[in-house]
Amino acid sequence: MNRSIAKALALDAYYQVLDNRVFRLLLVLAGILILPTLLIGAREEGLVILFGIKTIPWSAFLEAFGNVRMEVPADFHKSFIAGFQDMIVQNLAGSAGVLFSIAATAFFVPRMLEKGSADVVFSRPIGRTTLLLTRWLSGVIFVALLSTALVLGLHLSLLLVSGHSDPAFLWNIPSLVYVFALVHAVSTLTAVLTRSSVAAILVALMFFLFNGCIHRGWITLQHRDAIQQQQQAEAKASEESPTEDSESGLLQALKTALHVAHHALPKTTDADLIVGNLRESISGKVTLIQDTASGAYWKEQPEDLSLTGTRGLRDLSVEPAVWEWKRGDQQIGTLSIRRESRLMDSANGKIRKRSSRVVAKEFLATLPTEAQPKLEGLSYGAFGGDLVVWSEDGQRRLRSWTSVGDSFLIGEASVAGDALPPEQVQRNYGFLFARMEFDRDDPRALSEADWYRKRLSWTAGWPYNTVWSLTSSVVFAALLLAIAAWRLSRIDF
User: What's the domain count of the chain?
Assistant: First the structure.
């Protein structure tokens, strides 16, 4: 195949996309999604409407949605923009957009295989495999043009109107194209086998949904196993009897089937996680406070509280994080978090870890009965812990212990008399622990997606290696296209 034929095939694929009515409709929809970012800017002071005609402060915007805050972080607009970008690109374009694109491109191959069209197409001095790949490439171009228009348009509009630039956001273009190219290979094979656009659409849609469920189920399984391994390791270090879950033969068979399906099928959901890692490595992680040892950090200001001291990295064992409740200029209570080692020498000379329940009970025994102390379980966040509540010198007091590796994160709250309702104190205390995140590899400290994203990297071992994820997925698509080409070569027209 010479250069002129290759150029003609490429132009044919390109014009086939431009002549597609659904393509033009989706292009208009992309413009509609971009339009609000041209009319409304997200600045540090708030939402700026029509280039300064009106400005809505972030506090007023949040209050309209029932989220009242005494203080809005100065970099809140960055979080707002990042959330908007993810909603448009990952939720809309990455799910609904892919589904529409599958429906719009599914007829490319069946139309070529129709009796009258096939006689003309295959009479050309071009191999059937080349023609098939051209039709597959038409679908890829379809999504590439739409992705570029949407992502690049959002990036430029946010840069011009909001003054926000996130170059890593542009990685969503190849991510969307990559995911669709994998699914489009399934559609292409189905079209060759059935010569039906409807069958190609249904099979590709079912595959897209089923494949995502398989991958997410595998991540859930891996996360659960990692938590169990961590708990058993800590129980062994604390000289406790680790609990072992017995699994039936059927459950083991299902787990094995899930592992096989995950490794055999393309990892389409990895694309968003890879882009997320790239964006974080380029843009960095915005934090309010982060402990240097435990890795605990907070991105948001707790409701009704004001942080004292400097933001950023600090050693919580030396400089605890302290928040204040205020009424006007008067302080009516404090809430703090500090770190303390949970390691201690045992009777046989070995070092073991204290449990939060044992430490809480020991502290409870030191309080007088008139303080009305009580011990409660702390269930905020992923770790939980133990909480002691009591009264002392006209103050309502709380102290909790949360185990994090070799340390305790100890929360303490003190409120003067009846200055605040007890439910508000508990709510603020719970907010602080529920929003606590960890920059560490303990699976209990992270959601399934965050835990897997931390493990997924270019240098990680199998099966968390990014190269393995991409390579195995591309090989899967190439195998489907090879089967489609083989079957096409044996069809008589």
Answer: 2
